[in-house]
């Protein structure tokens, strides 16, 4: 099945690209888990705190973080030698919430 | 990275399994599209109407429908010789909305 519409530079195309990136990022349980942990830890954690929290290889974690970053769900900031990862709750609510909105009509 | 928790028969395990099935189903743009079309057509369509609406091979469409069915987002009913596909909006709102809820606290 072809994608419903082309994803050009139009506003609609950008919106579809956002939906694709966000829902692809959310498809993996580890990535949903990282977002929740960031949220419950106050919204942000350093790379070191994330590495300590997730008892698995850093390359795997960092791959998930990159996917979340590409979807705009996590933003990275450098502070001296630290990398700080922050969850973008507003974008999460906006992209997922907007897509879900039509389904609030009907049983 | 390992899955955050085992998915046993506990309520928490079932909830995680539901999240996995639903977010995996929503990861493909064609499946999100099918759900929206079902919704805007009043909530249900026959197999024939779906085949007419989506100008692509029926095996591809039916594969997407099976994935949506496995996630509980679409229910199939037989009426005589017809197969009727119905979107389960309540489940969609419940599973996705519940997961999104914590993120409503914070910017």
Short account of what is shown:
The structure is a homodimer of 107-residue chains. The first copy, chain A, is an alpha+beta fold and 107 residues long.
Features:
homodimer; about 110 residues; alpha+beta; three-stranded antiparallel β-sheet; 5 helices; about 15% strand
Structural commentary:
Chain A is an alpha+beta fold and 107 residues long. The first copy, chain A, has helices at residues 11-26, 29-40, 47-53, 58-70, 89-100; strands at 44-46, 74-79, 82-87. In chain A, a hairpin with a 2-residue loop joins strand 2 and strand 3 (82-87). In chain A, helix 1 crosses helix 5 (89-100). The interface between A and B is large, with 40 and 40 residues.
Instruction: Please trace the helix and strand order of chain A, writing H or E for each element.
Output: HHEHHEEH
Q: Based on the structure, what is the oligomeric state of the protein chains? A: homodimer
The helix count of chain A comes to 5
Shape of chain A: elongated
Q: Using CB atoms under 8 Å apart, which protein chain pair has the greatest interface?
A: A-B, 40 and 40 residues
Proportion of residues in extended strands of chain A: 5-15%
Instruction: Give the terminus-to-terminus CA distance of chain A.
Output: 28 Å
Mean pLDDT of chain A: 90
| Strand arrangement, major sheet of chain A | 1-3-2
Binned, the helix content of chain A reads 55-70%
Main sheet summary of chain A: 3 strands, antiparallel
Rg of chain A over CA atoms, rounded to whole Å, is 16 Å
Q: Point out poorly predicted stretches of chain A.
A: none
């Amino acid at each position: 099945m072809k994608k419903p519409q082309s994803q050009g530079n139009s506003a609609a195309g950008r919106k579809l690209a956002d939906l694709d990136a966000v829902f692809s990022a959310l498809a993996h349980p580890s990535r949903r888990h990282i977002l929740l942990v960031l949220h419950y830890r106050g919204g942000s954690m350093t790379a070191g705190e994330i590495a300590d929290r997730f008892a698995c290889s850093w390359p795997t974690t960092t791959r998930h973080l990159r996917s979340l970053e590409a979807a705009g769900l996590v933003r990275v900031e450098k502070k001296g030698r630290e990398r700080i990862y922050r969850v973008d709750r507003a974008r999460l609510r906006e992209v997922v919430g907007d897509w879900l909105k039509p389904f609030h009509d009907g049983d």
